[in-house]
Amino acid sequence: MYSLTEGIEDLKADRPRIRIGRTKISNIFIDDEKISKNHCEIILERVKKSEQKENNQPPIAWLTDKSTNGVWVNGKLIGNNKKIKLSHCDEITLVEPKISQKIAPKYRFFFQYANMPSPLSEIKEIAKSYKIFGLANEGGYGQVYLGRNIHNKELITVQAFENKIFYDQKELEHETNKKKFLQSINKLKEIQSENLVRIHSVITTEDHLYIIREYLNLDDLSSVIQKREKFPEEEARSIFEQIIQIIDFLHENEIVHRNIRPEILLIKIIDSKIKVVLSNRGIDNLIPNNLSSYTIAQRTSTRAPETLSPEFNINKPCDLWSAGVILYMLLSGIRVFQEPRKDGLTLYNQIEKAVFDFSPDPFSSITIAAKNLIRRLLHILQEYRPTTKEVLNHPWMANRSELIKYECEDLDEYIY
């Protein structure tokens, strides 16, 4: 059992029964009121020699959920007093956060059978420095694994890309596309910021490219919005200011992200204050400024209109559009572009024409200044969107000490 939670040690499963819970007799003790006294049990069932399909077949591990707040295996809830057979490299999560005002911690483990190889162990450059626990997720461009640096015990993620993704539709420009991608990654690796997940190294093989980066066991902004539904303007402003500062940092280093979205913005709580960190889960979308795209963003709802055109004329303003989409969500708890709509407009058409509104519920109590900033960010024409510096100087952002209900005439210079 490999722990991904700070303060909880790994456990070698060398006994027939493993208890995880809130009592001192638990094999894995978690001092948290959300954890049941006997939260779950893992029982190792030896396979009879007569039934073994191979010599020294490992025992079968059964996990039983005995909790009030739940146990998840690979993202699926087990259910109280129900059990499931564990497979090699299964991910076990305790106490998924409920919809509330608080951000609950997640307790995550990876289960591995001792005599079975770890993922990516055949890659010497990875195996000599890292122990890989298992597959975290699989996206359109490859797999993301979780693991640990065997030298300093730091948790890491490994994103694996197949080299074939660098071919365009005509299977041309393979090396050029790969070179552009590596230039972006190396640029991001060089720049340091407390609001960016660190990239440790890049490993290339004949068939794959592996990016090894820092792992943070944090909720993303999308899940936080689902729990909170919406944020008061003062709190939304604090979060949004950090998002703009992240975008500004990237743009200062001539990097256009082009797919910033709530799912890749991680939320850390420090002294009861929210800190935003940009994950590298969307790393395949990072390109140097003014370079044409060679991959298509998979998430549509935060994409700018220009990313939908065949020419793909992408530049810094596309990240400001994404910021506007996120600000709308922070203040309302809902997505600005979504289906279905009464007028029948598809998601694509809504974005292409910048069709959105400020419904009385939940925008009746939102200040004019906030809505004005959203309108500016979601302008259909790139050249009319504000820069990061202009956003930070907007009246809604510039008056952080208290909320001011601006009259329309106070915003004349900001209205187009």
TrEMBL record:
GO MF term list: ATP binding; protein kinase activity
Keywords noted in UniProt: Kinase, Transferase
Residue span, Protein kinase domain: 130-397
Residues covered by the FHA domain: 18-78
Protein name, entry field: Serine/threonine-protein kinase dclk3
Pfam family, one: Pkinase
InterPro entries: FHA_dom, Kinase-like_dom_sf, Prot_kinase_dom, SMAD_FHA_dom_sf
